[in-house]
């Protein structure tokens, strides 16, 4: 019930469910369950921008997971600690958490988790202007996501590659990634499709309609190209 309210953005109600769950878990001595609840409480505070409180929850979760020897759970906690430092602009510390998370994921052969870590390492390097290294991380992440069939993850990787190529002036290379991301997000019904429309609009402006249309033609049929132009035109008038 807490997860449902969290997904709907009803954070106060989600917190109430998690706290009720945590109270019962504490009474029954379910340490693993308590660790999961602490983690979710951290997620909520992170979403609300309460980073210090989020850190406290993640550390409480991590302490129990360490006692239990739950390496998969520890990897998740390390990742979230990295996210907090990333959000606060502490990129070196974020990198350290992500690397520790990745090391555990590699030990347990969590390929889906490794893909997530690769993506975040790419984000950090992109934020620091290390574009070639960021590109390598995104490509490694995308390859694993394709292996495990993570379509939402593939969309995020293609989207990030499109952004990176656009920002570094390689706009023609960006279009293919951005349009793949858009198609996947539309198929999944994700609101992230709007973000891709912004980047495709930038690419269209820089390339001009004729060249932009020609690049789209190598990835989709005429009907889909028309649909993309319609979406871009609609977004421009909003």
Q: Could you please describe the fold and organization of this structure?
A:
With 238 residues, the chain is mainly alpha-helical. It has a domain of 81 residues: Alpha Horseshoe (Serine Threonine Protein Phosphatase 5, Tetratricopeptide repeat), CATH 1.25.40. 85% of the residues lie in helices and 0% in strands. It is built from 13 helices and no strands. Helix 7 runs parallel beside helix 9. The radius of gyration is 20 Å and the shape is elongated. The mean pLDDT is 95.
Describe the secondary-structure layout.
Layout: H1 2-7, H2 11-28, H3 31-47, H4 51-68, H5 71-87, H6 91-107, H7 111-127, H8 131-148, H9 151-167, H10 171-188, H11 193-207, H12 209-217, H13 222-237
Shape, principal axes of CA atoms: elongated
Mean pLDDT: 95
Number of H/I helices: 13
Helix content: over 70%
Q: Assign the CATH superfamily of the domain at 1-81.
A: Tetratricopeptide repeat domain
CATH architecture of the domain at 1-81: Alpha Horseshoe
Could you tell me the CATH topology label of the domain at 1-81: Serine Threonine Protein Phosphatase 5, Tetratricopeptide repeat
Total count of strands: 0
Rg on CA atoms, Å: 20 Å
Written as H for each helix and E for each strand, in order along the chain, the element string is HHHHHHHHHHHHH
Pick out the low-confidence regions. none
Highest CATH level, the class of the domain at 1-81: Mainly Alpha
Largest sheet: none
Estimated share of beta-strand residues = under 5%
What gap, in angstroms, lies between the N and C termini?
35 Å
Estimated structural class: mainly alpha
């Amino acid at each position: 019930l807490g997860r449902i309210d969290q997904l709907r953005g009803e954070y106060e109600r989600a917190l109430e469910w998690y706290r009720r769950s945590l109270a019962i878990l504490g009474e029954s001595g379910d340490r693993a369950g308590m660790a999961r609840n602490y983690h979710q409480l951290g997620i909520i505070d992170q979403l609300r921008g309460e980073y210090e409180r989020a850190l406290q929850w993640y550390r409480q979760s991590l302490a129990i997971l360490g006692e239990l020897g739950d390496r998969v759970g520890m990897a998740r906690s390390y990742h979230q600690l990295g996210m907090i430092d990333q959000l606060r602009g502490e990129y070196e510390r974020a990198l350290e958490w992500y690397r520790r998370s990745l090391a555990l994921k590699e030990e347990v052969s969590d390929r889906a988790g490794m893909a997530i870590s690769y993506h975040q390492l790419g984000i950090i390097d992109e934020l620091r202007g290390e574009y070639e290294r960021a590109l390598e991380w995104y490509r490694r992440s995308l390859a694993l996501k394709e292996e495990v069939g993570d379509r939402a993850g593939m969309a995020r990787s293609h989207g990030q590659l499109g952004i990176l190529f656009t920002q570094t002036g390689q706009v023609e290379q960006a279009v293919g990634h951005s349009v793949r991301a858009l198609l996947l997000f539309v198929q999944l019904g994700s609101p992230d499709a709007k973000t891709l429309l912004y980047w495709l609009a930038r690419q269209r402006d820089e390339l001009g309609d004729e060249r932009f249309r020609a690049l789209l033609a190598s990835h989709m049929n005429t009907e889909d190209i028309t649909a993309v132009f319609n979406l871009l035109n609609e977004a421009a008038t909003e």
